[in-house]
Design brief:
The protein has 424 residues and is α+β, with helices and mostly antiparallel strands. It has 14 helices and 23 strands. A 4-stranded mixed beta sheet has the order 21-22-1-23, covered by helices on one side. The protein has a 4-stranded mixed beta sheet with strand order 2-14-16-15. A hairpin with a 2-residue loop joins strand 19 and strand 20 (357-361). The radius of gyration is 21 Å and the shape is globular. The chain binds uridine-diphosphate-N-acetylglucosamine. Uridine-diphosphate-N-acetylglucosamine is lined by residues 23, 26, 93-94, 122-127, 163, 165-168, 189, 310-311, 333-334.
């Protein structure tokens, strides 16, 4: 087991470059199964979820070449209609994209029910509803936790999602790209990574229109071809560094960002007293976050994009734990995403929970403690709390953090933080 040891109290300063978006990359990699021919993908984050997906694809017969740290060439021309290795699939939530990709490619999918971060029930009924509407027979073996889907021919359909789901939107989009005829998806997610995956699919010759709005129209294609693509910057990593900068009273320039993706986060940080300055250095857009003193309390409600992202709710709560007053965080997306609260309390935070609402009474300061990450974004919140706290914090279970943050410790160290990894 590995842990981070954080010595708190340093104001972050300097500049940091944001990596490619995890949630786009984990969909784009399985999407390469839909194609005959090589796909060269740049700006792929070197994180454990990506490494796992590459292992799964390799096992299915994909040829993968790496050019430098973040560029991959994936050629699934010779991929077999094989079952993705169950023990690998179970370790990653986004393995559900193998359902859409395998169905689109082979007309058959046999996938273990997804694992990944656990914060309440995370059903995939909308994914299944979509695949069935496209003509697939889907069977879930509850005991073996296996999903089997089969379709002699996928046919375009009109699908109304009952829940706005990032995963279901992208998954059905993948399969529909290879269906016969037109698919219309209504009630879709509009997150930046949904648009990014649609752009990637279009570069492969697909016809996906309307991503980023409430309705997506897909005209199925018999064949898709290889392409070159660069993954967008990670919205959640950007937000994490913005919050970390404000939480330490720092002054940080965050480079390689798309400022419009960050509007909800910027607005809340500004409401709390931070300055958020947008700029363009001629190469990249950047956001500079500057903060002095204690934050003002703010109220946050997580919403689907363009609302405040659920993935930044936990880091924001760490930040608000020392606000000068009472803040609230209402979690509207997931039913139980408050595992980080107990750990923040160990550091002296005063947080009470009532159903989906956390009430955070700001304290003067947090103090270092032994704390345990329960999922990816909770882990990010605990690192931020450690940076804010007096004394030494040990953050355990950082395997969760490695799933989605590329070289987090190195990036923070370059900003002046005292953080190191240690194997137990
Ligand atoms: C994705 C992101 C995750 C983010 C979340 C919300 C990836 C790999 N993960 O997760 O980081 O926190 O979006 O922005 O992109 N739901 C159903 N039925 C379904 C699917 C979802 O009821 O079939 C519910 C979920 O339980 C949840 C809500 O819909 O309450 C949103 O979930 P969804 O957008 O699907 O999240 P994920 O795709 O799992």
């Amino acid at each position: 087991m590995i842990k981070y040891i954080v010595q708190g109290g340093t104001k972050l300063s300097g500049s940091v470059t944001i990596s490619g978006a995890k949630n786009a990359a984990v969909a784009i990699l399985p999407a390469t199964l839909l194609v005959s021919g090589p796909c060269r993908i740049e700006n792929v984050p070197d994180i454990s979820d990506v490494r796992l997906l590459l292992e799964i694809l390799r096992d299915m017969g994909a040829e993968i070449r790496r050019y430098g740290r973040n560029t991959l060439e994936i050629d699934c021309t010779r991929a077999r209609n094989a079952t993705a290795p169950i023990e690998l699939v179970r370790r990653i939530r986004a393995s559900y994209y193998l359902i859409g990709a395998e169905l689109g490619r082979f007309g058959h999918a046999h996938v273990a029910m997804p694992g990944g971060c656990n914060f309440g029930v995370r059903p995939i009924d909308q994914h299944i509803k979509g695949m069935r509407a496209l003509g697939a027979e889907v069977h879930v073996d509850e005991e073996a936790h296996l999903l089997t889907a089969r379709a002699a021919k996928l046919r375009g359909a009109e699908i109304f999602f009952d829940v706005v789901s990032v995963g279901a939107t992208i998954n059905v989009m993948l399969a529909a790209c290879r269906a016969e005829g037109q698919t219309v998806l209504t009630g879709v997610a509009k997150e930046p990574h949904v648009v990014d995956v649609a752009n990637f699919l279009n570069m492969m010759g697909a016809s996906v229109r309307g991503a980023g709005t409430d309705v997506i129209r897909i005209s199925g294609r018999e064949k898709l071809h290889g392409c070159g693509y660069a993954v967008i910057p990670d919205q959640i990593e950007t937000g994490t560094f913005m919050i970390a900068a404000a939480a330490t009273g720092g002054d940080v320039v965050i480079k390689n960002v798309i400022p419009t993706h960050m509007e909800a986060t910027s607005a809340k940080l500004m409401e709390s007293g931070a300055r958020v300055i947008e700029g363009d250095d001629g190469r990249d857009f950047y956001l500079r976050v500057v903060m002095d003193g204690r934050p003002r309390p703010v109220n946050i409600k997580t919403m689907v994009y363009p609302g405040f992202p659920t993935d930044l709710q936990q880091p924001m709560m760490a930040y608000l734990s020392t606000a000068a007053g009472v803040s609230t965080v209402t979690e509207n997306i997931f039913e139980n995403r408050f595992n980080h609260v107990r750990e923040l309390r160990r550091m002296g935070a005063s947080i009470s929970l009532r159903e989906r609402v956390a009430r955070i009474k700001g304290v003067n300061a947090l103090r270092g403690a032994q704390i345990y990450a329960s999922d990816l974004r909770a882990g990010a919140a605990l690192i931020i709390a450690g940076l804010m706290a007096s004394g030494r914090t040990q953050v355990h279970n950082i395997e969760f953090i490695d799933r989605g943050y590329e070289y987090l410790d190195q990036k923070l160290t370059a900003l002046g933080a005292s953080i190191r990894r240690e194997a137990r």
